[in-house]
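tool_log.txt
---
The assistant was asked to compare two proteins side by side. It first ran the structure predictor on the initial sequence, then on the second. Raw inputs and outputs are pasted verbatim so the downstream comparison step can read them without reformatting.
(1)
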Amino acid sequence: MQGGSRLRHVILTTALTLAPAPALAIDEALLPRNLSPWGMFLGADIVVKAVMIGLAMASLVTWTVWLAKTIELRRKSALAFERTRALEGRMKLAEAAERTGDAHDAVAQLIQSCAKEAELSGGIVDDGLQERVALRLERVEAAMSRQIARGTGVLATIGATAPFVGLFGTVWGIMNAFIGISESHTTSLAVVAPGIAEALLATALGLVAAIPAVVIYNHLVRGIANYRALLGDASAQLMLLVSRQRDHGEFRLARAAE
């Protein structure tokens, strides 16, 4: 009897020990083998995939705008600085307008607009001329500032919305995880892990898109502010030039020579 009792005890102990093994083996079999970013993307829900693709495209737009606007700002700022330095000499308005020719850069537009107003005034030099010139220069500055700032607004939009788009992907991934738990009636890691991984990846992509967009936007805003300051310096030099020529009567002499 004792031998039979011991045998039953050994069998029961062995059964209890081996019972969880099949479930564990099943859980390990159900675990996703590829939890790399690309593997998580391929295994994600269609909505989460759409969110990830949108964030990747937003990041591409951010770096494209940065490259294009950086090159544009450097080129235009260098040209504006060069033309402004030329105005600081003993150059006359007609000479400055002749040098610019048909150029379409910002300072050239300021010079041509100033020369056009002086020409339309018909040699009548008074306080009204300076006021009209100042008004023309202000309008050209505003137009050139809008032109150089074109395209930067999308960076502000990406920086403001990308985290929330990534959060939407996170919420959707968590929802899928809970739905999987409900349908399988288990809290197994094999059911929860894929949805959680997708959710975290969407969050990471949202931050990857938003952080550079904000940093690049602030950098471009500072560059645009410096460019506007150069245009302000050029306008000031033109106003000084007009004032000097008015005091010396050079507009009247030029008109008489014609």
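(2)
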Amino acid sequence: MSDPTRGQRASSFGRRAAEYAQHRPDYPREAIEWGLSGASGTPHRVLDLGAGTGKLTLGLAALGLDVTAVEPDPEMRAELERVVPSVPALAGQAERIPLPGDSVDAVFVGQAFHWFDAPVALTEIGRVLRPGGVCVPMWNYEDESVPWVAEFTALARDGARRPASVEDLREVTHPEFEPFEIARFRHGQRRTADSLLETMATYSKVIVAAPEESAALLGRLRQFLAENPATATGEFDLPLITTALRTRRR
């Protein structure tokens, strides 16, 4: 499969906004609570940055937090407004956040921090975050300790290099922030072969590929799922690991 630019991939998700909202997994409550527990005081005002269609926004709002979402893509933002109408959804990006200084207690980032210009974004996050507040990037990944999942994700990568690892991003430093802490949480999503393929079709690499390339890849994945005993019939649980980073503003 051809290797599109990072910018093309980062801006591709709006083309599949409705499918993203329907098929991407949510985030476990314990991961969100772990992130919040790193703040000094009791966090209440929270920014969901790069909020997409609101997968993480929903979990933050469910805790009774005062949530604001910021998302650059208008199609993703429209889905967010549909899914979480109670949360203000603003146009903006990590490097230029449309909020005043020291206005939030926590900044959460679901499945998006690796797209940011990290040094610039952390400066801007530091501007809107009060001293003692926390920045909490998190990601859902397939649990590759499960053999069939490891085979499936290797096939899905189709020879492409692995994305930047959370361990690499953990090493990012900024003078306004303490070193990142890391925690992992077991998670899962009820899937069928069809819904898992719909999920894969929301990955940026698949979205931006030539139609014949993406169709061929999804065909190979469909064959794998049809032949794998764990996924061949009916519903199954897709094992996931939610990995969260946490850093406190000095």
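---
observation on (2): The mean pLDDT is 91. The chain is about 40% helix and 25% strand.
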